[in-house]
Design a protein that fits this description.
InterPro entries: OxRdtase_Mopterin-bd_dom, OxRdtase_Mopterin-bd_sf. The protein is mainly beta. The protein has one domain: Sulfite Oxidase, Chain A, domain 2, CATH 3.90.420.10. It is built from three helices and eleven strands, in the order βββαββαββαββββ. The radius of gyration is 17 Å and the shape is globular. It binds the ligand Nc1nc2c(c(=O)[nH]1)N[C@H]1C(S)=C(S)[C@@H](COP(=O)(O)O)O[C@H]1N2 and molybdenum atom. Molybdenum atom binds next to loops.
Length: about 200
């Protein structure tokens, strides 16, 4: 057994040494990239794709694929944590910071609902999307984001459980009050901090 792998972990629970402090409570190390989708996978043509921010904002707007790709992109190295207990470490996406996108619309409410091609929704408070902590990403590990992982574009909010990172994202609606999205209406936590194990309603 190589030095790189901790002894005493079987199968997929083996994790690289020194990574223990990066796995939140109740999570296990997952070297792969599982696909978790509720319902069918939508196929979105970039010619038809739009990303919009509307709702309680001073200046609603939407971007075509071409307009979006003219915005400043950055690499986002991160760890991701799914509420079904897998954590993937040291993975890199590439996209546009929500700080950049929100600066153009003048948000006036404190909450947002992310909505998607295919109908999925998830709520994220505005403060969780600012300060360099959330992106709309179109690449993973230097390749276009695979369709099953949300391509052409998904929300990425790595400091919250991964159900908040809406795949096939179509836009954000800014709201005055916090409203539950798809999983939040079905028992998942409104906030979803993996370090506080905010998995379900009563956590
Ligand atoms: N549109 C949409 N986004 C979604 C989901 C979904 O079913 N539909 N599942 C969520 C959940 S529960 C998780 S864990 C992650 C899974 O992302 P992945 O399939 O790329 O691993 O996407 C989140 N975003
Ligand atoms: Mo999930």
């Amino acid at each position: 057994m190589s030095d790189f792998i901790s002894r005493g972990f079987g199968g997929r629970r083996r994790q690289p040494k020194g990574m223990e402090g990066r796995i939140p409570p109740g999570q296990y190390y997952e070297p792969g990239f599982p696909v978790l989708t509720a319902g069918p996978t939508p196929h979105v043509d970039t010619a038809e794709w739009r990303f919009s921010i509307d709702g309680v904002v001073g200046a609603p707007r939407s971007w075509t694929w071409e307009q979006f790709n003219a915005l400043p992109f950055e690499d986002v190295p991160c760890d991701i944590h799914c509420v079904t207990k897998w954590s993937k470490l040291d993975t890199t996406f590439r996209g546009v910071s929500l700080d950049t996108l929100l600066a153009e619309v003048e948000p006036l409410g404190g909450y947002t609902m992310a909505h998607c091609y295919g109908g999925y929704t998830t709520n994220v408070a505005l403060e969780e999307l600012t300060g360099g902590r959330a992106w709309v990403v179109t690449e993973h590990e230097g390749e276009p984001l695979p369709t099953e992982h949300g391509g052409p574009a998904r929300l990425l909010v790595p400091h919250l459980y991964f159900w908040k990172s809406a795949k096939w994202v179509a836009g954000l609606r800014v709201l005055d009050s916090d409203e539950p999205g798809f999983w939040e209406s079905n028992g998942y936590h409104m906030h979803g901090d993996p370090w506080r194990e905010e998995r379900y309603w009563n956590d």
